[in-house]
């Protein structure tokens, strides 16, 4: 079973350590990815996306399963080195675009910057749902993204907003009605764990 587990080496933990990341939180992190086989680096968030750390929601499949597991219970400022088996990474297919061969074990060095209440909490849903109709429109989510972006103060390409918005609807608007209902939004209802 060990070959199907993520091995986590904690390199640095700040004091105090909190809040700790949990499923559904919005994380901001830098990470470098290496092939365990030859040690070559296949990804570096510092050299891509104009060097901005990556934002993603933990535990919902926005990153490979191994990273979703490896980044649970981390606090801002923490650094980890994690080894992810192929079964929790790109498996037998590999990932040609990312230069990852089939059945590759991956090593990531991760530095976590921020843990925000994820967009998946009930509080967040109610906050985004300005007209209180129990469903989120593109406009409501668009406004929410603008506020989030303004709050972290990072310069982003104007297209980033639209890309994220499109992505949110592609992944969450299961019935394609142009709204995200409370049920569609609530990731905890279709949680594999």
UniProtKB/TrEMBL annotation:
UniProt keyword Metal-binding present: yes
Q: What Enzyme Commission number(s) does the record list for this chain?
A: 5.2.1.8
Reactions listed under catalytic activity: [protein]-peptidylproline (omega=180) = [protein]-peptidylproline (omega=0)
Q: Which residues form the PPIase FKBP-type domain?
A: 24-116
**Pfam families with a match to the protein in the record:** EF-hand_7 (PF13499), FKBP_C (PF00254)
Highest taxon listed in the record's lineage: Eukaryota
- Residues in EF-hand domain copies: 116-151, 160-193
For this UniProt record, the keywords arranged alphabetically read as follows: Calcium, Endoplasmic reticulum, Glycoprotein, Isomerase, Metal-binding, Repeat, Rotamase, Signal
**What do the Gene Ontology cellular component annotations say?**
endoplasmic reticulum
Q: Which GO terms describe its molecular function?
A: calcium ion binding; peptidyl-prolyl cis-trans isomerase activity
Protein name according to UniProt: peptidylprolyl isomerase
Organism from which the protein derives: Nothoprocta pentlandii
Gene name per UniProt: Fkbp7
